[in-house]
Every structure is written in structure tokens, then in C-alpha cells.
Amino acid sequence: MAIKELAYNSLERISQIKEVEERTTAIRTLCQERPAMAVFIQYTYHPDVKMDLPEGEVPQSLWKRAEHDQYGMFYGNVKRLRNFSPNAAGNRLAKERAFFALLESVSAKDAELFIACKNKKLPWKGLSASFCKKALPELFPADMKVNEKEDA
User: Fold this and answer.
1) Which of 17, 74, 95, 117 would be a feasible disulfide site paired with 110, CB 3.0-4.6 Å?
2) Distance CA 102, CA 51 (A)
3) What is the pLDDT of residues 56-95, one digit of tens each?
4) Long-range Cβ contacts of 55-61 (<8 Å, 24+ apart)
């Protein structure tokens, strides 16, 4: 049975596992139990995935942080990431507005994950692109370049 916790808390818990094999097993298990997490990690680190959104932090003045910690909202919203592709319908302003709506629909911590995905870097050293490529090789191209120093 899956542990019911925010996606942010799941990833944070996994990132703190010191033993690489144990961390690998934990991230693989999470992705099997929650396929949307595999999609999220792929969107975050896959070199071919681009988002038609401005880089960097999202100013807090542009969106309202949710005041709930509802479990599961994150997973249902991962599919919306495809709407921010350069090939997706809509102009950039419409995509930015939709991104703000996405951030407002999930818990404040899970919103941080969507911002991290947009910026192509999760906030934990233990879940770097290098680690995720090794732990979940089926999600990434074999020739994907990663910074091995991230794991040092």
C-alpha cells in the first residue's frame, strides 16, 4: 500500500536516503506506485523536454499559494505539463496564466516541485539529473549528458 503524502514530501524523504542502492529502490518504487511521478521526473530532466515559460523563479505576486496540503492533487496535475510545451496550443501568455493556475491548484510545497521542473532542477542534491538517469534509465536517452559532479 502506498504511503499517502505530498509528492514533495515523498521526494524529500527519498533524497535524504544516504545509501544509493536504497535511494534507487525507493525512487523506482515511487515511480511504479505513482506513474505520474515518473512522468514528472522525465519532464524535469529529459533534454528534449522544453517548456515555453520564462526561466527562473516565479514571482509570488503573480500567483496565490494554496493554503491546503491535500494529498494527490500533484499527481492528477502532472499531465498538464504537456500544455507548456513550445508545440502546445496557445501563446506564451496563455501558457503562463495556465501555469499560475496549476501552481494554485496544488499544495504550496508541491507547487515548488512544478517550478523546479520548469527550471530543470529538483531542490535536492540526492535527486540530481545524474542520479535519476542512473536510477531510472528507461526514462532518458542513453547518450544523455549529465554533470557527474552533482552526485559528489
Assistant:
1) 74
2) 14
3) 888 877 777 777 666 668 999 999 999 999 999 999 999 9
4) 55/118, 55/119, 56/119, 57/115, 57/119, 58/99, 58/100, 58/103, 58/115, 58/118
d(CA 80, CA 25): 27
| Residue showing cell 530532466 | 45
Q: How far apart are CA 50 and CA 63, in angstroms?
A: 22
Pair 96, 53: CB distance under 8 Å: yes
The CA distances from residue 124 to 17, 87, 105, 113, 120, in Å, are 11, 30, 23, 11, 12
Cα(54)–Cα(152) distance, rounded to whole angstroms? 30
- Helix residue spans in 16-128 (DSSP H): 20-33, 35-45, 73-77, 92-105, 108-118
For the stretch 93-122, pLDDT in tens is 999 999 999 999 898 899 999 999 999 999
Q: Report the pLDDT value the prediction gives residue 68, as an integer from 0 to 100.
A: 65
* Interhelix angle 92-105/108-118, nearest 10 degrees: 150
Instruction: Using CB atoms within 10 Å of the CB of residue 80, give its burial: 0 to 12 exposed, 13 to 18 middle, 19+ buried.
Output: middle
**Is residue 46 over pLDDT 70?**
yes
